[in-house]
Amino acid sequence: MPDTTLGALKKANNDLFFKALDAVVLVAPITATIPAAFTTGASAALQSLPAEYRSIGWVDDSDAYTWSRDTEIAETTSHGSTEPTRRDIRSDVTGFQMTAQETSRLVLELSHNVDLSSVTPTPVTGELTFNRALSPQTRYFRLIAIAQDGAGDDLRYNIVVLPRAMVSEYGETSWSAENIQTFPLTWSATPDPVLQFSYRQTYAGPGIRSRLEKMGFPALAP
């Protein structure tokens, strides 16, 4: 083998760093269509989503959007071996945590686990009233999260689709003169029996198109 250097072996490239400079999370009923693609044309321009998708809006910046992955491993041990002789992945669950800041109908529906489509304001006063269910039901949603880095011809999108997401945990909320009321939400991804996946990852945008070869994928013709 020929001589080399550590740098040549490393092939490090900070042009492949990604930072979520801005992001949006959109939620839709479980019956909503999931786009087959999110960009179009040689410019790889971002496309609009179906009208059923509603934005959660502003999210607290301290943790912003946090993705987790909880795996469970079943280990087999054998006499004479100091380490497990077999490991099997028994479960692989994706979690997604955010703290919504807007008191919108969507955020209220998610944080209280209720459907507010039939709630109407009281005439004259505009008062809104609703109850939490005594026997709450698990509600599933389409969830699309889109993060953006770069600008212009260097725009890059990091897109995750959870086809059957549920809110699995509700964080504490407080009334304070110092801070706004927020709505911490933890999502869990579950498999969609028709689509046959629980998590879909997409990278898109003109900045991805120009980086394909650097990322280790086939380059496209200019």
Keywords, please?
eight-stranded antiparallel sheet, mainly beta, 222 residues, two-stranded antiparallel sheet, 10 strands, Bxb1_TTP-like
Overview of the molecule:
It contains four helices and ten strands, in the order αββββββαββββαα. With 222 residues, the chain is mainly beta. It has one domain. Strands 1, 4, 5, 6, 7, 8, 9 and 10 form an eight-stranded antiparallel sheet that branches. The protein is globular, with a radius of gyration of 22 Å. It starts with 5 loop residues before the first helix and ends in a 7-residue tail after the last helix. The model has no long low-confidence stretch (mean pLDDT 96). InterPro entries: Bxb1_TTP-like. It holds the Pfam family Phage_TTP_17.
